[in-house]
Amino acid sequence: MDVKKILADVTAKNPGQELFLQAVTEVLESIEDFVAKNKKYDKYKIVERIVEPDRIFQFKVEWVDDKGNININRGYRVQFNNAIGPYKGGLRFHPTVTLDTLKFLGFEQTFKNSLTTLPMGGGKGGSDFDPKGKSDNEIMRFCQAFMTELYKYIGPDTDVPAGDIGVGGREIGFLYGMYKKLARENTGVLTGKGAGWGGSILRPEATGFGGVYFVDNMLKAQKKKLKGMTIALSGFGNVAWGAALKATELGAKVVCISGPDGYIYDEEGMNAKKIDYMLELRDSNNNVVEPFAKKFPSAKFIKGKKPWEAKVDIAMPCAIQNELDAKDAKQLIKNGCKLVCEVSNMGCTADAIHELQKASVAFAPGKAANAGGVGVSGLEMSQNAGHISWTEEEVDKRLHGMMDSIHDNCIKYGKEKNGYINYVKGANIAGFIKVADSMIELGVC
Ligand code: 2IT
Fold first, then answer.
1. Lower CB density within 10 Å: C or N end of the chain?
2. Where does ligand 1 bind, in terms of residues with CB under 6 Å?
3. Active site residues
């Protein structure tokens, strides 16, 4: 495979799509040697085919706000690759969402879903709608307008969306309510549903829990223990909440969370009250973390800064792509941080990853470490298809099993001669193999 040529073609075909190119570059560079040794992938042009999304839908979403003004947003669904199962992936509502964002996320999702061990293809969707400051009724009207278009393209065996940034349990409720009405069926076409109407126990917690199980595995590989470690998380939404909950339960001390306005440093660490308050903050739709410091006296608010300047053992980006750059990585290394685990999708810039790997800091990419979210979505699909529901113990056991298997695969394909585990390489190769081999078996179609 000629990586330079393929990347030049992808760049020419997708002008200005920097995020998509960043995601593709990372994967192609890390699978290059593996593909060179396995000639079948070249013969079937798998790499050239895997970087091209199957199809993309873009639609207009019109809705009326509480003041009676008409608003126009853009909606999208990218169906990236369904070689191993129905398209599966979240919906992101955030003002920065463009087609570029959703192509990068759909591409990442294809590899991530392959890693989960479950039969799910990769997809992603969303809108540039900004939930900040919107009333519940405005959010409901937007979700209903969005689904009026989206429902044409999805189905329980075709494409199964879920939440992502800006889309949590409330939004999934409004979206599913409208889907049900339009499609006249009660199938599990969305995951992240409420427990009373087809949702899986532990789906809200799954991304964060899975991230912490993955960190635990990374530490075990270094013969270290999570108990007593200090952790900086970014974000305060669903992912950071789940991570804070599990890390605290396992005896680690979460000292930082953050928002677009700055970060919180709390030397006493999180407790049940503080973790519950994160949910309240998220539901307030204000997207600021400062109120946390007003409520808890041990918490300090550091305005306009990122949590990566704090001295911690472990950093877990849980907010958005490229939230940790080379400068942040250098600061973490200088402060003695020994492990960085992305729980957001592509949370670190390429330069940041390079700095961390150069300094032999253990680094896990989001597509491995945050796969527990979509993994439990897959379990929700299984429960819906079988009209059954599993207990918390059952779901947690399966989630744990998936995270262990992803970690094993990262070691299998990513362990270097000097013993350093290159999780980026391991995850990309393991994710690639299953999709690529399936594409060969399925023929050129
Ligand atoms: O990035 C992700 O894996 C998600 N937003 C979850 C996707 C899903 O289908 O549960």
1. C
2. 88-90, 109, 112, 162, 164, 191, 345, 370, 373-374, 377
3. 124
